[in-house]
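Bench log. Compound arrived from synthesis this morning; before running ITC I wanted a structural hypothesis for how zinc ion sits in the protein. Inputs:
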Amino acid sequence: MAHPKENLGDEVSQRLKLSLAQRLQLKVTGTVPTERRNRPVWRGELQFYAFKYPVHGLVGNHPQGYREVLVCPECKAAS
Ligand SMILES: [Zn+2]
């Protein structure tokens, strides 16, 4: 039996390991910081965020480029 589409966000939030507090913040602000990953010293740590994106819903990515915009990784992969 197929899952209703409303469950999709929960599945992704589990994959992104969002806590209840993070899910609440996501609901309120639309963006929530998640994990940090180490990068070369001169770049510092890379902060990842979970955020909602049209078409693909809840996704996770890090700010990109000079303007530090959050881009949906699925849309980026498709273009
Ligand atoms: Zn997308």
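What the model suggests: Residues 9-78 form one domain. The two ends are 32 Å apart (CA to CA).
ITC booked for Thursday regardless.
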